[in-house]
Structures are given as structure tokens and as C-alpha cells.
Amino acid sequence: MTKLYKNYIDGAFTPDATEVVDVFNPATGALLAKIPNSDEATVAQAVAAARRAQPAWGKLAPIERANYLRKISAKVRERRTELAKIIVAEQGKIQQLAQVEVDFTADYIDYMAEWARRLEGEVLTSDRANENIFLFRKPIGVVAGILPWNFPFFLIARKLAPALVTGNTIVIKPSEETPINAFEFAKLVAETDLPKGVFNLVGGVGRSTGEALCSNPNVDLITFTGSVATGSRIMQTAGRNLTRVNLELGGKAPAIVLADANLDLAAKAIYDSRVINTGQVCNCAERVYVERGAHEALVDRLAAHFKATRYGDPSVRDDLHMGPLVNQIGLDKVSALVEQAKRDGATIITGGKRANLEQGFHYEPTLIVDARADMDIMRKEIFGPVLPIQVVDGLDEAIALSNDSEYGLTSSIFTSNINSAIHAARELRFGETYINREHFEAMQGFHAGRRKSGIGGADGKHGLYEFTETHVVYLQTP
Ligand code: NAD
Fold first, then answer.
1. For position 144, what pLDDT does the model report?
2. Which range of residues forms the domain containing residue 81?
3. Which positions of the chain have pLDDT values less than 70?
């Protein structure tokens, strides 16, 4: 019998759902489990539970809230191997990366818990001699966290930990593609003494469960990670109640490689960007602008890496660089973009088609040269193991092409010239720029996109404060 998970609402697992969603392994097509496809009434129950729990939770000393978070991270560590296996099976990432995701999630929860003793307001000067002005940072209330499938477990922590430590309560809706890890996370939470209603989990598809959550007038903040199209839709839904939104959306990150760069380092960092999580990472390099003098040497190095890539079913092999794409839609999208690039005159150096494996949504690691700025492959998010390269005649051209994008999440430059690096850092209009290293953010940084890559951000102090609102108090003494 296939396992059927239950929603977690108000500190309890709910009775079996009548409507369900099937969850499959993308490497084999095997049915893994079923989750509830929650209706509007169920979502409303979860939001109401979060609303009831919030006042008492918000009044606890922050350090007490942090102590609950640490109990959750300890539970995650206890079950780290099992959780990683679940992520491998339902999402298709390789075992090593799934383990990194689980461990990083526990560390992230602890990191956010550390902020409990560092949450600060401000004391402002007044125009009146006998007055003090205090700025408090207070919880917003009930948070809805809507998650994507690409780092499904970590994204729970990225929403939950800053929300809870600042005194909010939360309702999480995982992606219907990869929900099992979230339901297992709920079991861990249930083993702690976290007050009921502080954390709630509802399963379901975006157009019904997700919409119900975003249109619920009792939700005070929607924090969403996913595609631009869904982000835009959520903003429209949220607009009806003027609910706040925090949106982490797609990317089309440029990597600029100058002729004076360490090309071994550049090739490895950019290659890693395209195979990590099978290229399904919002912040990873998706297009390269290489200075003419370094083009051939960079392509040679990249081609060697691409050709040596091992891929397959990550549940049965532990020596892989990458697994399958998450689903048929992802595979069709990647295939269509590469076919279009061929028609547009780009040249395939490695790969260029669906992988010849018996089952699963595998695509060959694909290196493309002769790309031009007007091609879709240089403009649209690929989200697969495909790298297009365009030749440029200098840094300013590379910067102009990089900035000419509807996305603005991350960017990178490889050069041994500090002046070029600083010039690029000044001129690139992106939320993040990596200099001589791979694209991957730190938890103490601030992960935020410009343009259609999002509104607001996550991580570090600035990400934490997105879960608070200010309250200014004027105290006049006679
Ligand atoms: P998606 O937009 O298809 O789905 C994300 C979530 O939104 C899912 O839980 C889905 O059920 C829900 N959803 C769908 N329609 C909805 C609606 N109308 N109302 C409410 N919820 C709805 O995204 P995805 O395919 O899961 O994730 C891949 C995308 O996420 C890529 O574009 C990637 O770049 C982006 N991403 C961004 C970041 C970041 O930090 N900026 C991180 C990871 C992924």
C-alpha cells in the first residue's frame, strides 16, 4: 500500500484526505507516496490555528523561541541520513548534495536561532527636548511559506526559522513535486514540545491549495520561492487583501570570464554551476560571456568537464555528478530551448539531447558555443545541465549584455585584475556578484533579486528583518 501522508494542523496530524496528489521518483517513475490535496476549508483551518497560536508565541522571550528551534534542528540531525535518502528519491539530486542540504538546513535553523539575542530596535532623536522615540521590531503575524521543489528541505528552514524566531507563526505549503521531506519534517516537529499551531503544514497543488493560502485574509505575509509566473500570480492574489509579499524568483545568471582569468578555476566553477542539482538552481551561472582571447582555452576546459560527467539514478549510485531533471515538463523545456538554439545557429560541443537511459527525465550535459544575445538560450531560464557561451570583446560589452536581462539575481566575474573586478561589482545590476568563485550564497549574506528575480530577500540580518514590522513609540516626559 502506498503511504498516504497527513496534514499537520494545530499540533496534530489530521484525518486522511479524500483528495490526494501522487508523488513520483523522477529517476524511475516509481510512485513514492500520496499527500493531501488540501481544499480551501482545510487551508483556512491551518491559518486559523496559526492565528490563534501567534499572540502567545510572539510574547515569549526570543531566546525561548530559539530554544524550540534548536530542538527541531537536533531532530533533523538525528535523522540526517534518512532525510537525505528521501530527497534523493523524490527530487533526484545526488546523495552527497542531498546530505549537504539536510545538514545545511539544521545549521541554518541554528544560525537563525542565534539572532534571538541580537534582535534590535532603535532609539531615535526627537525634535522635542523632553521626548524619546523608540522603534520596535515586532512580528508581522501569520506567515504563509510556499516552497519550490529544487531545494525543498532547505527552503522549509529558510521560511520557518526567521519567521519563528521573530515571533510569527507559519503555514507551509511544499511543492507538490517534492512534499515527502516536508511531511517527514512535520513528524520531527511533532516529537518536540513546540506549542501547537506555531508550525502547520498543508499539502496540495498550487492552483487550489496555494491560491487558497494566498487569498486567505488572515495571512499577513506570503513568502514564496518559485517561478516568475507564479510569483506574479501570487502578487495579484495577495493584492486583493493587500497582503505583504516576499518573492524569491527565477534567475539567468551571467558569468563573465576575462582573458586574464585563471581559466582552470573559472571552468571548474562554471561547470559545477551547471551540474549541481542538474542545473536546477536559481542562482547558478546560466550564460557565459568570455573575452575573445580566452574563448578557445575556456571551451576546451569546459568540454573536458562536460564529457566526464556521470549521471543516472542517484538512489542506486553514489558516484554521480548529477541525477535526472525533476519532471517531464522540465525535460521538455530544456529540450525545446536547445532545439531552438540549434535552429538559431548555435553550435553544440557536447550533449544536445535527452540522455539515452532506460527511464527517468535525464538530459545530456550540454555545452553550446556561438550563442548570441538575441537567442532564447541566452535570455530564458534553462534550469537544466546546459551552458551557452557568447564571445565578447571586453568587459564593458560583457557588463552591458549581463545587465540586459529581465532577471537580476546573481552574477559572477573571473579575472586576476582587481580593477576589472571592482568595476564589474559597481556596474552589474544584480542582487549578488561572485568574484573568482562559484555561484552559491552564504546564510549570513542577503539573497535578493533585482527586476523579475524577486521582491525582498532572504538570509542574514536583512532577511531576518523581512519577517518583522516596525512600531514607533513616542514617549514624552512632562
Ligand atoms: P513554481 O512557481 O512552479 O512552484 C512553486 C510553488 O508555488 C509550488 O509549491 C506550487 O505548488 C506553488 N504554486 C503554483 N501556483 C500557485 C498559485 N497560483 N498560488 C500559490 N501557489 C502556487 O516553481 P518551481 O518549479 O517549484 O521552482 C522552480 C523555480 O523556482 C525556478 O524558476 C527557480 O529559479 C525558482 N527558485 C528561486 C529561488 C530563489 O531563491 N530566488 C530558489 C529556488 C528556486
1. 98
2. 3-249+453-476
3. none
Task: Find, among 76, 92, 232, the residue nearest to 151 by Cα.
Answer: 92
pLDDT, residue 357, reads 86
Shared domain for 169 and 156, answered yes or no, is yes
What is the three-class DSSP state of 206? helix
Per-residue pLDDT tens digits for 354-395: 998 889 999 999 999 999 999 999 999 999 999 999 999 999
Residues 409 and 463 in one domain: no
Pick the atom of ligand 1 nearest to 173's CA.
9
Tell me which residue of 440, 441, 447 sits closest to 461, measured CA to CA.
447
Helix (H) or strand (E) holding 216: none
Give the residue, out of 35, 211, 225, 381, with the most ligand 1 atoms within 8 A of its beta carbon, to mutate for a pocket test.
Answer: 225
pTM above 0.85, yes or no: yes
Is residue 282 part of the annotated active site? The answer reads yes
Angstrom distance (rounded) from CA 98 to CA 424: 33
Residue 425 identity (one-letter amino acid)? A
Number of domains in the chain: 2
What is the position in ligand 1's atom list of the atom closest to the CA of 214? 20
Do 415 and 460 belong together in one domain?
no
Q: Which of 90, 176, 177, 248 is catalytic?
A: 248
Supply the CATH number for residue 261's domain.
3.40.309.10
Same domain membership, residue 342 and residue 293: yes
| Active-site residue, 248 included | yes
Can you give the pLDDT at residue 15? Answer: 85
